[in-house]
Amino acid sequence: MRDYIQKDRIQRLKGKLLTLTFILLVFVIFLLCYYIYIKIDIWTPAQHEISQMTIEQMSQTIGDIEENDKTITQVIRQINETVVGISKVKEAGESVFLEDGVSQLGLGTGLIVSGNGYILTNEHVSGKKKSTCYVTTSTGRTYTGTVVWSNSDIDMALIKINEKNLQYAVLGDSDNVLVGQSVYAVGNPIGYEFQRTVTSGIISAKDRTIKLEENGEDIYMEDLIQTDATINPGNSGGPLINNRGEVIGINSIKITSAEGIGFAVPINSVKSVIENFSTKGNFEEARLGVFAYDTSVMQYMKAKSETGVYITKVVEGTSAQKAGVKKDDIILSIDNQTLERMCELRRYIYTKSPGDEVVLKILRNNRQMEIKAVLQKR
After folding, report:
1. Residue 204 is among the residues annotated as catalytic for this protein
2. 286-377 placed in CATH 2.30.42.10
3. Which of 57, 207, 219, 363 is disulfide-compatible with 330, CB 3.0–4.6 A?
4. What's this model's pTM, rounded to 2 decimal places?
């Protein structure tokens, strides 16, 4: 009897274990099926709409890139028609692969800035006022040009050729350029065989001052635009443009001791000169008669002022000397316009005429004073 009871208990225990095992197996199978189910990607109408939007957005992005490339291509094509080659000799020869060919032939670049034949370039490319040079346009025609204006302080010159209805460049606003902004340099890097070469880069810095040595004296060029767009000797005088094709500077100097460091003269420095010549045919340039540097180089001059322009030399016989301006003076303002950079003083004087009187606020030996000066013809 006992054996029978014992066997019955074992049978019931086995039944329970089988039942439990079956339940666990069903549960595991359920979990597995659920996991597989949630991983299945069901294509709903909403998802189709989202995917379609993504494709459209991608297409739009690609279209924007293509349109931007097309725009830049058009911009370069337009500016190229206003870029000219400049040489100091009429026949530049068949090849530029000469020893020191660029300097021997005086090859450089210029920019047409008015329809009636005015061309902007560097003074070291064209020569000083009344010099003769030869200008070759994008059509291949060569003109004899005369330098009608030049300024050694900013290394800029204006050439006149006898031609009308020329396509000319659009001038931008160099005061509003931004560091990191995309720019393009156009020019003749090593001569006419590589004319209108385009290089791209960004504005690396603005308001740069660099120190140069000329005729044994240290000189400073201020307010320059620094760029990493490749600039070679023949690029001198060519335009630096923005994405809209507006000229914001004229390529001038490259640092030979480092790669990717070039400088351009801001176009705003000469806008008034260009406007006067293109509309009136002349420019009566007024002169104060000082050599001065802005605040960025005052540390070299040991000047004790955070603003103004520092006078390093007063030219004899000029209005500045006659008015009593002295070396080591700091001009704080002119006609109540505060000065922080030499370019601001230069631009203001460009708006005046010989014979105009200006009032200078001077800092001398930590004392402020006002001096009146009558501007002379340069």
Report:
1. no
2. yes
3. 363
4. 0.71
